[in-house]
Amino acid sequence: MLGGSALIAASSVAYFDFETLPPFALEKFPLRFETLWFASLRIHVASAILAFPSCLVLTTRTLQRRPLVHRSLGRLTGILVLFALVPSGAVLAFEAKGGSVVTAGFLLSGAIVAWFMVQGVLAARRRDFVSHRRAMRHVVGQMSVAVTSRALMLGLDAVGVDPELAYVVALWGPVLASAAVAEIISRRAVFSASNLFRSVERMYREISALALLVRVRSVVRPVARLGR
Fold this sequence. Notes:
This protein is 83% helix and 0% strand. It has 228 residues and is an all-alpha fold. The longest helix is centred in the last third of the chain and has 65 residues, at 163-227. The protein is globular and about 70 Å long.
């Protein structure tokens, strides 16, 4: 994912050349709100270049073992996603190639990112780290669509699928699959944690019962000897 993100960043440099228009932008003309669209494009690309790698780094154990750094970077990433990435993406969605079906896919993906980012922040504030991890999996999953969608498009193009159909499939497939995978992983993690908790609790009860038995026997023996 980091490699895919780097490739996208490298190919997006042309968007910041204010003297020439990139081929991607030329396909959109005529635009109803040209200034707004170009501003949103640059904000979206710049925020994605920063936010996606940050989200990936935040999922590593190295950073999770450093709460102060994790918290600070997480807050900056959350602000960037909620106030730059998602709003600019919503503007771009209405001019997306493929019509209303593709627009709906982009808006759904953005809504999932925004919803779970807010839920993740709230969960972290109340120290509910299980819910926090679930929310962040959904955020990372939807942000990874930028990479998986492009890879899928290349694959569909290689086998000769109609470009318009390929664009729809390459968007909706990763959006739905990422949401499903994030939820499945989260449920398995909760199930494993529950099993672990039950095992520890059972061991604790067994140890407690054994300790009580030993304690009772140690008390009974001196009493018995005294009775003799």
